[in-house]
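Sanity check

After download, print the first record. It should look like this:
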Amino acid sequence: MNFEQLEYIVTVANEKSISKAAEKLHISPSGISQAISQLEKELEINIFNRSRGGVTLTNQGEIVLTSSIEILNNLTHLKEKLANNKETSLKHIHLACAPTFTFLLYDVLKKYTGENRNVTFELIEKSTTQIMNNFTNDRFDLALVVSTKAELEKENKLNFEYLCTGYVCVLVGKNSPFYNLDFVTANDLNNQKVVMYNFSNKNFLQMAKRFKNDIVFKSNRTLALIEMIKENQVFKYTHNTTLKNFPEVRKGELKILPIKENDDFIYQDFWFVSPSDRPISNTCKEFIQSIKNHLQSMTE
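Expected structure tokens:
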């Protein structure tokens, strides 16, 4: 006796036909018939009465059917328990993010790992384009990106979930002529000097080009860019949430100013991205909720 034989019995009993059961299970009718006949021989009973009109259960077959359903249900419950156990014991998240989320994630990770010591992380920082192009090969569990819904809908191998909407800002130091402003306009930014992160999203690069900015320094070291901004009359493009809790911002040495164009702010959407070929783990779902809670606390 094996589980396949029990599944065949349940399906044949439901369909009242060996051929229909075979079609549903994607195997040959002869394969099902032989498997059931072997079990009948092993148990020394007839499970089905066979006729031109189909098959019906014998009295002994009814007993076998009831036990088969119970055994298969127990097997399903066993698989679920083992999957939950695996989920509990193996909690590792391979995470990618666009640079705008890096410091936000550091804040979340400090708290989350302190409360969930059995969860480990691997964090990779890349541009949104790099993340999208290499998501499958890099086997990321989760990514945070800056994108439009239309762009994400073109990625048929990815699932996506809206996180929030941020707005584009500039980060300036006390030496900047913009420091005492509440916001800057597109006209203010024309022909100004900027520093750029190497993995800046394409929207920032497009803005620098549109405003004819002179990019005087590029680096993948955030602290190097910060020092340039503090000591010179330069700025960098950023989002309102990126460096909100950064020490120099909280002390007032740096200031985040939103950009207004045509009397409105410039908005961009933030998203979670996950692979469509495997379900998102409960651990990832919990971590996503932690990020949402953190963002909510930042706006309160």
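If your output differs, re-run the checksum step. Summary of this record's structure: Residues 59-89 form the longest helix (31 residues).
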